[in-house]
Amino acid sequence: MTRGSIVLVGSLPVENLALDLLFAEFDWAIENAPSLDGLAKLNRKRNLVAVLFNPQDLALTWEKALQSVLHCSAESASCPVPWIRRQDRLAASG
User: How many domains does the chain have?
Assistant: First the structure.
């Protein structure tokens, strides 16, 4: 089984040490992508498990950032997830 990767897009103020301890339990790696292009490149090379991002770092609205992240990482999804419904709920609550 391919090791999963959590990707941090942009410059998130996340303490990698805290995440390292959590992700080690699942044998996941933490990857950094400076941009959506970087995310797309990692998507082709890695088994993406999750993508963490801040829309402001990408200079996009929340909805556009989410659509862009989904587009860049959709090919690696190993199971179908109702992303559209999740996006609608997030947009409605924001």
Answer: 1
